[in-house]
Design brief:
Elements (H helix, E strand, L loop, with lengths): L2 H18 L1 H7 L13 H20 L7 H21 L9 H16 L6 H24 L6 H20 L7 H24 L11 H10 L7 H21 L23 H18 L10 E5 L28 E5 L5 H13 L3 H9 L4 H5 L14 H17 L5 H25 L5 H12 L3 H13 L6 H18 L7 H10 L5 H10 L11
Parallel strand pairs: 1-2
């Protein structure tokens, strides 16, 4: 394939992507469409599908010549994305018939403009006003397209309507902008109407949320690029659960040490100030990486801050992440981590520092933003309700879970936290089981919730939330286990082969250099040429 011709084709691919997904474009740092919401009208969906058909035909017509590693990745990933888009355009999971798609895009169309100072506040509020003005028509499309969907989807959308009202009525009151408030009031009315329609739809709600085995296989093959089948992955997940359950059973019982009479409760290991605990553990995690030569830890600080006033009431009702993948095109010199209240020290260390804010997602995002693969730069950016392109998931989530293993391997976890890692891996594998069985039609939503509660030990509310999320995004929950296992498998294979002299830092830096692309494709590339990175650069 001729490289310049392919680069021109990829330009057209991204132009279509950003135009059809304006809220995702904002999160990625492309701001040409910041005043718009997606077009989910019948014509808009037809235009999106026509784009996919045209781009695939043009790609097939390009002459087959040699491409570089990154271009071959982008060709395969873009093709896979378009094939999945063809299915999604006709699926109830991703169109206006799914009310959570409407509520997510409408709310986060506004939130995306407030989270980061990519432009002066007055300019961003003008853009938010334009998106607010588009919400009534946007939600009316959903009302007219209303079709029977699972009651759990209706409940999630209604919860997001509550969050939207709190954001638009109370949160935006923190900003002085007359036009913004008027547009917000009209948008609130639209959310109320939409919520009423959702309530009226409850008697017609269905119990089936399966996307179907063919759709699941499409994702596994063309987003995650797995060699095996869904059944193979399910067996792997069940084996992992059994192995971790066996490891838990072999653990010695934790000693009970009653406090001395009259003794004060033990102090947390990090200073008493809540935000200082995050900061101290982040510094310690960075030191762990540098002292042990685990990887190149970037000079890209995370600053742990409280949630902004405008978001505090609404956040519990929304997909409001404390850490969102930084926009690769906005070039943020530091990243704000919006800490939730009330986390204990182990949760701060394992989740908010290691998994998200340091060794895990944050380091991987730094490498991804500098990858030669143009898809790999943006694929794992968090958008309204899922990442920008599912093909980035096995690397993003696989690495973040592997990073916690690294912290354990190098003595950063307490004995209780090390024991807890077995339960964490059970949850990771259980997600794949539920994902596969739900979308093959072998689990109802209630059975998925029961599996999480009784096999995994999740609390009822957490089990329900996880199962509903799995039902909405076929194939997405498989990426944790597939990515984590793929990284460990690649590390073992390189250590046993001709690349066995690679240091751990060299292995990690080369793995990360590919960006947010499927671990399965990185594995193939590194096994073919273990000492060659993906052409990443440091600028």
């Amino acid at each position: 394939m001729n490289a310049p011709a392919f680069d021109a084709w990829l330009d057209a691919f991204f132009a279509s992507y950003f135009r059809r997904r304006p809220v995702s474009a904002t999160f990625i740092g492309r701001h040409e469409f910041d005043d718009r919401l997606p077009d989910f009208s019948a014509q808009g969906i037809a235009d999106t599908l026509a784009d996919a058909d045209d781009l695939l035909a043009r790609l097939d017509a390009l002459p087959a010549e040699t491409l570089g590693t990154a271009q071959r990745l982008d060709r395969d990933l873009a093709r896979g994305f378009l094939l999945i888009q063809q299915w999604e355009s006709a699926s109830r999971h991703f169109g206006p018939a799914n009310p959570t798609v409407l509520t997510g895009e409408a709310v986060f169309g506004v939130v995306s403009l407030l989270l980061r100072p990519f432009a002066p506040l007055a300019e961003r509020l003008d853009l938010a006003t334009a998106r607010l003005a588009a919400i009534p028509t946007f939600l009316d499309v959903g009302r007219s397209a209303m079709a029977p969907v699972p009651a759990a989807w209706l409940a999630r959308a209604r919860r997001e309507c509550t969050g939207a009202r709190l954001l638009l009525q109370d949160g935006l009151a923190n900003f002085e902008h007359r036009a913004l408030r008027g547009a917000a009031a009209a948008a609130v009315d639209a959310f109320v109407r939409f919520d009423n329609s959702l309530e009226q739809a409850l008697p017609q709600a269905t119990t089936t949320c399966a996307a179907g085995g063919e759709a699941l296989d499409l994702v596994l093959q063309h987003a995650h690029f797995l060699d095996g089948s869904a059944d193979d992955l399910e067996r792997q997940a069940l084996d992992r659960i059994a192995a971790e359950e066996e490891a838990i059973a072999a653990l010695p019982p934790a000693p009970a040490v009653p406090p001395a009479p009259g003794a004060a409760p033990p102090s947390p290991p990090i200073g008493g100030d809540y935000l200082e605990r995050f900061e101290a553990l982040w510094v310690a995690a960075r030191a762990l990486a540098r002292t042990n030569d685990l990887l190149t830890f970037p000079d890209w600080p995370v600053r742990y801050v409280e949630r902004p006033l405008w978001a505090r009431d609404a956040a519990p009702y929304l997909y409001f992440l404390p850490y969102r993948s930084p926009a690769p095109f906005d070039h943020q010199p530091e990243v704000e981590y919006l800490v939730p209240p009330g986390a204990d020290d182990s949760t701060i260390k394992l989740n908010h520092v290691v998994h998200h804010g340091s060794l895990g997602h944050h380091v991987q995002n730094w490498f991804a933003a500098r990858a030669e693969s143009r898809v790999g730069r943006i694929a794992a950016v968090d958008c309204a309700s899922r990442i920008a392109m599912l093909c980035g998931g096995t690397m993003a989530e696989g690495w973040a879970n592997y990073a916690t293993d690294l912290a354990e391997e190098h003595g950063f976890l307490t004995s209780a936290e090390r024991a807890g890692q077995h339960a964490a891996r059970i949850r990771m594998a259980a997600r794949a089981v539920v994902d596969i069985r739900l979308h093959q039609g072998r689990f109802t939503l209630d059975e998925a919730i029961s599996f999480y509660r009784h096999r995994v030990g999740m609390a009822p509310s957490a089990a329900e939330a996880e199962a509903v999320k799995n039902s909405l995004f076929p194939g997405a929950a498989c990426m944790y286990l597939a990515g984590w296992d793929g990284i460990w498998r690649l590390r073992r294979r390189l250590a046993a082969g001709r690349a066995g002299d690679l240091s751990l830092q060299e292995f990690h830096d080369r793995l990360l250099s590919f960006g947010s692309v499927p671990v399965a494709l990185i594995e193939r590339a590194m096994l073919e040429s273990p000492t060659a990175a993906a052409g990443a650069h440091s600028s």
